[in-house]
Amino acid sequence: MCGVVGNWRVELIEAHRDLFQPPADFPGAAQGSPECDAGWRDVLDRLCIRIRAIIQADGGSFKFSQIKEKYGTLRVYWDGALSPDADARVEQAIALAEARSAVTCEVCGEEGRLREGAWLTTRCEAHSEGRPSVQHRSGLENIYMVRHFVEGRRFVTCRRYDRQNDVFVDVDPTSLGIEE
Ligand SMILES: [Zn+2]
Fold first, then answer.
1. Distance from the CA of 131 to the center of ligand 1, in angstroms?
2. Residue that finishes a domain, picked among 115, 135, 155
3. Is 153 found in the same domain as 99?
4. Which of 33, 72, 90, 174 could crosslink 120 through cysteines, CB 3.0-4.6 Å?
5. Distance between CA atoms of 139 and 10, rounded to whole angstroms?
6. How many Å lie between the centroid of ligand 1 and the Cα of residue 154?
């Protein structure tokens, strides 16, 4: 099996050379080559397609600087120069990818859950190796808090990640019993 490990990364980078900007003769050496398992390939593919659409519409420069797993979910970092609007849309695309990784098995890409163990992982039942899933307070699964600062005032909005449609849906914080 050793010979094929890493091929999905090279294929992903080859498919999105504009965003990875790998060395011409060695795509696997791209700075942003994913440091995660193959189950998140589709998450990254969706992210690349979204980012490309933003940059094609808005111009600017973009390059992944690091893609890795941390605490069981995806972390994505990039370098470049985009307009404030494009920057915000790229960050939104990255937030979607990170939220999707939190409910997608890192091994196989099926629906998964964050699991406790020696370290946090996101796995489906079949790849859980018996590790229990992290218990969220009922109703707070896939809920993300977003902090905003407008004219020096801080406020919080809530959104839920909808895996089926791969979108965030705004949620009224008071309906979740969350106090600001
Ligand atoms: Zn799995």
1. 13
2. 135
3. no
4. 72
5. 39
6. 39
Q: Which residues span the domain enclosing 38?
A: 2-135
61: enclosing H helix or E strand: strand 61-70
How many domains is the chain built from? 2
Strand partners, 154: 149
- Tell me how far the alpha carbon of residue 128 lies from the centroid of ligand 1, in angstroms: 7
For residues 38 and 102, membership in a common domain is answered with: yes
The model's pLDDT over 23-60, given as tens digits with 9 standing for 90+, comes to 988 888 899 999 999 999 999 999 999 999 999 999 99
Q: Which residue stretches of 7-151 are H helix?
A: 7-15, 17-20, 41-58, 84-101
* 45 Cα–ligand 1 center, Å: 18
Contact 15, 46 (CB under 8 A): no
Instruction: Tell me: do 45 and 109 sit in the same domain.
Output: yes
pTM of the model: 0.89
Whether residues 121 and 148 share a domain: the answer is no
Using a pLDDT cut of 70, give the percent of the chain over it.
95
CA–centroid distance, 133 to ligand 1, in Å, is 13
Ligand 1 center to 162 CA (angstroms): 19
Distance 79 CA to ligand 1 centre (A): 32
